[in-house]
Amino acid sequence: MPPSSNSTTDGYDLLLRLLLGVLAVVVPLSHLTWLCGNGTAYLTGDSWAPYQPTNALLRPEQVWPEVGENALLLGARIVPVLLLLALGGTGIALWMRHKNRGAGRKKITGMAKARDIEPLMAKAITGKVRSLRPSLKDAKRIEARDTGILLGNLQNTRHEVRMGYEDVAVAIMAPRSGKTTSLAIPSMLAAPGPVLLTSNKAAGDAFTATYEARSRGGQVWTMDPQQIAHAAREMWWNPLASAKTLDGANRLAGHFLAASVDASQQGDFWSKAGSNILSQLLLAAALDERPITDIMQWLAAPADRTPLDILRDHDFAAVAAQLKGTVEGPPETRDGIYETARQYAAALLNNEIAAWVTPQKDAPEFRPSEFVTSTDTLFLLSKDGGGGASALIAACADSVMRAATAQAERAGGRLDPPMLAILDEAANVCKISDLPDLYSHLGSRGIIPITILQSYRQGQKVWGDAGMDAMWSASTIKVIGSGIDDPDFADKLSRLIGDHDVETTSTSYSESGKSTSVSMRQERILPTDAIRALPKGSALCFATGMRAAMLDLRPWYREPGAEELSAASARASKAITARAIAKHAPAQSDSGTAA
User: Fold this and answer.
1) pLDDT of 259-268, one tens digit each?
2) What ranges make up the beta strands (E) of 6-156?
């Protein structure tokens, strides 16, 4: 039976591959032989032969007739083969190393390329910053740190991806996925203006890594009411400074409410009533320029008429009437409302916490209005579930952002340089109720918030489904790191990334031979399981109006100057440990003596 055309084609393919393989060995070997033969001739005193690699490989004795047989065997036979093997082995090793290094970061077809996210690239963002920052309008050269916040490199490239100084961002990254090392710390180190950071950690975190570096550019303020960093109280802040209006008092009371009650429970009667009482008493204390701790005395004695008299004396008769109605209402209802309010503000009973928010003769007052025009840094530290203490942290962060908004309006619309607000662990220590609403205008004011959450559901718990959806929609930059275990959210991301066409080849065999057909089908660019398995060091970036991009994160410890920063971080961590030991040493000594 005569061979089929398919068998003939397969034979030609095999012959072609064999020919290419022979050429891949013969061509480099012939050139190596010519080079090595000439080297041998030079060493033995013979003349340099003209370019003839084929003859050098096949008839070396004719190319170099004056060279001895043994020398020619070594120089034109053995050495070229050894060199070819060495070069081939080195090439294979380098290829394997590159393959292994990129094994977890295989380039994904369908994700954004450089041209798809050009507005986030260096050239476009540098051109735009001149219009956003008048101080740089005539600058001949603009430093990279002045153009925007580095998010990482476009995967497997050297293209830097930056968010501009009019963007607002949400980062959803699980613990140990790079949210601090690759986002918070680099952003703080490069920020040209004031920086605000909220956190629930100190040692080995953004606090220790950036403290020294930021102190060289301006004053560092640390508010540490629960002694996470065991920081000395070298400042105090007056939360009542912005509570001399009903709106301001309501906002401050809202922080105590949000710190104590989840979004789903904030609308019930007791929560709302307790927040209203707090608001009225905070307004009275602010109008009379009293310390915030005075409200605890009024909460303990509902019959005290002092807040009523203050409100009436300052023409807040309607508010006074509301307070009077609650005080004179049914005792069971009144006592329940006051007890709810007492629970919200319970942290003010702690003298160590209260000292940070009441006037102190031995420490300067932190003034948000002055901070936003400086290059200072404010660290706001609080423990998870800090209750009233985290309410003070949220209130301070909120007052800074509101002061920045007011300053931007006075300056023509934007802060220059912009202010960076990194709200790390925002769902635990910085529960600003209307943060999703603030996102709609902060970026246009030169106030750049980066809210960092561990999961999407964490945000839903604090701001509710509608609030978290609003923040997600208002964020012009969304960064998603590894560790996404929520299947619904992972599927949402997968659908946002979209589908792409995949070429499918099918082969069939029959008596007449092999036939091949090609068809196209659509599949997810990044399926749900791939998002869940996103490797550490990678992140998804969603920018408004652009395709989703895969980023290679750039942690600070792999950047220039990392050794100096590591040493500074170690010194700051050591200082925290020393302060902790000094604080607890007397107690340990006393207990040992008693024993």
Assistant:
1) 887 766 666 7
2) 148-154
